[in-house]
């Protein structure tokens, strides 16, 4: 502690006695380098995300320029200009490429997308005409400026700070530390959401807005290299494991009463953002939170014990797992880093059967790299933000409201159906997205407790003002949108020959304490029951995790299934289950046709798993019994742990090493040779 204090005092002393005038007069070239590159970074934000003078990205840009620039002091005076020029050229390339890229893609360049970006070169003429603009080259002023300034200083016989190596090292350290301190100050202002988005890289516009262009680009470089390094070694071993696994575990394609029941029908998938079963089961003052979903689930097949199995790729992980029956990748997300692999997907299998495959999402098509991911999953066409009319009054949270999204989607779908025949279409909802604070847009839904006392209505606040309460209001809105969608589809005649599939894409990450309030509210005292109270219901780790379950529903207009399937099920089981119903035969699905099973192991990307009987926490090696009649022995735990580890590993290897493609190619080659 004392040491730290001494050091702090020393720094304070140093700053106090620092001779700024002398510093400026001996570092003119360096200062010009720093300022001009920071101005370029602001210019780029001005041309793209328009937040050119925000303090946070400015600090981050400044820190990066200082840190990279500091190394100039390790060079002798003659070489210093060359170094500053090289770094400036690098920064210029970053700015110019991103400026061009933004005009074309409305997003920022990524090393992981270099191959796709280069396809722009094929349409060279169009690029010259439509993409290249004078503004993209304005950044070059910086290089001319630095060059001329250098000549000017040279003419004046000005010598940039050089001196003996010992002194230069000191200046290098001083500048580097200064850069790092600025970066540290910047990072202190970064919120947890911003941090998480930096690591996931799914919304690149957001990253440049908050972190500046240089931090974005270097972070992107490291992430892209990480994905490349991951696959440099270990191919042979992974391929062997893959072959062994599939020779022993061919997916069981048993016929059952659901086999082929939907063959040839349209498939309409609703990706219901953050809808949890908790919303489906909840009501306030006799009003259901999700009356439409409740009706749809009662008429269709409701899988009541269903989990999304998403990881850090959230929405995109669910889209991927739904399509491929593989698990999310352990590191990063398939959407951002491993979209360019060959996967066996529901969409591709349906396409082979003559389906027109379509996806719809009224948000930026670049989010979660869907522009590329959706092609890779096998969609013919992706209708994104640019296909929709977005008026300010129709915006909720991240973008176009679900009601308006559906309203505009149905005519497009109808046209596609009339022109191209049967379809498989996925509609990705958006409004019910955290932070659930667009309360003025959701419409009336009270989450208080109302009671009639002596002919008067008395209200107790209950969940009003809590995040969970707001979530219920938002979910109520999303449910109403689904209700309207069904009406619009029906009017357009699109329900008659269609099977509708609805899934909640992941849980809403709601605070545990809000559930405690939901279960333990005492209206008399307007507070939470005491933990000692006999009616107190605790919410432990397991209960919270089990509560993250989401709905999965299969519905058709003509058939009243009125069926609930209680078997534990995960998103990986969707593709094999639907495949059987649609007459498809997948080979690499890691999930099961749930209609063939009474019990099932639902593995999570973090190694946890759940069955009908227990939920297992792999980090703590602890479990909670769900079914009191079940016999749980250590063999069950060991066996289910093995299943989980194996499936996660095979899935990860398929993704990393592109095993479906590479091993099928290899088989084709061997067959060709024999
Ligand atoms: C982004 C939207 C939300 O377009 O799908 O994604 P999420 O944050 O849920 O992963
Ligand atoms: Mn989502």
Tag the structure with descriptive keywords:
single chain; 674 residues; alpha/beta; Alkaline Phosphatase, subunit A; 2 domains; eight-stranded mixed beta sheet; four-stranded antiparallel beta sheet; 28 helices; 52% helix; binds (2R)-2,3-dihydroxypropyl phosphate; binds manganese (II) ion
Sequence-ordered SSE layout with sheet pairings:
Blueprint: H1 2-17, H2 20-26, H3 28-47, H4 55-70, H5 77-105, H6 114-117, H7 119-122, H8 124-131, H9 134-137, H10 141-155, H11 165-188, H12 192-200, H13 204-230, H14 235-248, E1 266-272, H15 277-280, E2 283-284, E3 287-288, H16 291-299, E4 301-303, E5 306-307, H17 314-324, H18 334-337, H19 346-352, E6 356-360, H20 370-377, E7 381-383, E8 395-396, E9 399-400, H21 402-420, E10 423-428, H22 439-442, E11 449-453, E12 456-460, H23 467-491, E13 498-504, H24 512-520, E14 521-522, E15 527-528, H25 541-546, E16 552-556, E17 563-565, E18 569-570, H26 574-582, E19 602-603, E20 609-610, E21 614-617, E22 622-625, H27 634-657, H28 659-673
Bound molecules: (2R)-2,3-dihydroxypropyl phosphate and manganese (II) ion.
Manganese (II) ion (MN) binds at residues 273-274, 314-315, 505-506.
